[in-house]
């Protein structure tokens, strides 16, 4: 008897989808990014859906992040469509998919090293942006400026974008920010002073070690959009997507995962000519990306319980302070709209895979999985399969906030994968 999708996914065993012993390798390790998806998990999900459906030629991720889902979709030769508001995420994903110019990269690497050595011997203008001295030691500013100038002088655009990606990790590593959080918090002064500066050596090592990580280029189409998913999906044709596979934000960035704060220092070092930025406002200040993301804008929030299309959410809000209710309502105002737009672009009869986590507010679990399931079913989707998995290895700080009289609140340690099918009449 042929298994349905739920039976197929469960047949691997209760702990299979945890992927606890998996380490990032290949193209997925060329740059760090918060809350990265597990590549083998995404690969297996995509593989099983493709094999079962047999009618999938494109895959869409409206919150592509560091590109894990799109890279795995690329390995099956699918046409790719991705959206992310974060220019650093867009750059990392672009580099992972396009790779380097194999005809010129080794020559480019040699010339890059020569330029670095030249600028080390010769005084040069240092890069500057507002508050740079707060976030970087003087010697680090000097060495990052050498690397930056050496990258700008690279003529091959693909190779240059690759170099920026290699540099992005080192900007964060050698900054004065704490590594225990994605937010921008200054390290203790003694830790800043004793930090050993090997940034140029680390950069050269990254460039040389990562160059062979890329997959063989494929001829499938690849469309990456840097922008707000709410706006970008309006320009997409209805019923045009064969398969949606994504992990949407679990809450507004400012209080959940601050992707923008994690990225902004790197973005301020990268030449903006090599970034896809829909608006310079995104890098105008250190919180602009997060405040422009889902739920971050100042919207007319849902004011009445009758206006909230989820009984689960209405009941949860009763246990949360009025002030924090506003942020939650603001997030779900955007979240429900973006889910509706995803449903609009998905072809009837086709599947949408959502990987979701339940964060805590005032130590109340915001049951995003139940809220999403309730909303999607009301909007014409049927639940096809569901997986619960541990995320003990996912790159999220162990403690995300502190509540008065309660203390530190643990971050989420599990996720739910919901797989929906759009009805033929929707």
From TrEMBL:
SUPFAM superfamilies, A to Z: S-adenosyl-L-methionine-dependent methyltransferases
A Gene Ontology biological process term: methylation
Record-annotated DNA methylase N-4/N-6 domain positions: 14-87
GO molecular function: DNA binding; N-methyltransferase activity
Entry keywords, A to Z: Methyltransferase, Restriction system, Transferase
Keyword Transferase: yes
UniProt cross-references to InterPro entries, sorted A to Z: DNA_methylase_N4/N6 (IPR002941), SAM-dependent_MTases_sf (IPR029063)
The protein's name: Modification methylase
Organism: Paenibacillus sabuli
Lineage: Bacteria, Bacillati, Bacillota, Bacilli, Bacillales
């Amino acid at each position: 008897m042929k298994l349905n999708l739920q039976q197929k996914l469960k047949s691997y065993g209760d702990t299979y989808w945890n992927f606890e012993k998996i380490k990032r390798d290949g193209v997925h390790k060329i740059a760090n990014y918060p809350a990265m998806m597990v590549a083998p998990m995404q690969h297996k999900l995509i593989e099983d859906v493709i094999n079962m459906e047999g009618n999938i030629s494109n895959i869409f991720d409206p919150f592509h992040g560091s590109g894990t889902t799109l890279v795995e979709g690329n390995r099956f030769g699918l046409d790719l469509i991705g959206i992310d508001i974060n220019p650093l995420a867009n750059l990392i994903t672009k580099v992972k998919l396009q790779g380097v110019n194999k005809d010129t990269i080794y020559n480019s690497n040699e010339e890059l090293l020569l330029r670095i050595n030249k600028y080390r011997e010769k005084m040069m203008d240092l890069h500057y942006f507002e508050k740079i001295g707060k976030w970087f030691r003087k010697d680090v500013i000097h060495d990052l400026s050498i690397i930056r100038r050496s990258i700008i002088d690279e003529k091959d655009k693909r190779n240059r974008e690759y170099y920026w990606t290699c540099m992005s990790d080192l900007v964060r590593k050698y900054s004065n920010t704490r590594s225990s959080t994605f937010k921008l918090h200054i390290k203790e002064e003694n830790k800043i002073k004793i930090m050993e500066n090997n940034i140029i050596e680390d950069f050269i090592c990254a460039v040389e070690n990562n160059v062979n990580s890329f997959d063989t280029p494929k001829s499938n189409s690849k469309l990456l959009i840097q922008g707000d998913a709410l706006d970008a999906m309006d320009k997409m044709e209805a019923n045009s997507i064969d398969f949606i596979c994504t992990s949407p934000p679990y809450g507004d960035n400012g209080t959940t995962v601050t992707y923008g704060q994690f990225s902004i220092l790197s973005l301020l070092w990268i030449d903006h000519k090599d970034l896809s930025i829909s608006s310079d406002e995104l890098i105008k200040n250190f919180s602009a990306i997060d405040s422009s993301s889902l739920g971050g804008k100042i919207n007319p929030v849902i004011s009445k319980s009758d206006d909230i299309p989820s009984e689960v959410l209405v009941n949860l809000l009763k246990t949360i302070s009025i002030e924090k209710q506003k942020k939650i309502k603001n997030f779900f105002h955007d979240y429900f709209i973006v889910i509706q737009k995803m449903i609009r672009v998905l072809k009837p009869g086709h599947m949408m895979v959502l990987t979701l986590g339940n964060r805590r507010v005032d130590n109340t679990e915001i049951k995003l999985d139940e809220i999403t399931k309730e909303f999607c079913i009301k909007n014409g989707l049927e639940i096809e399969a569901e997986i619960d998995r541990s995320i003990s290895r996912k790159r999220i700080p162990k403690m995300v906030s502190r509540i008065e009289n309660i203390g530190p609140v643990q971050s989420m340690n599990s996720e739910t994968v919901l797989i929906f099918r759009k009805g033929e009449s929707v």
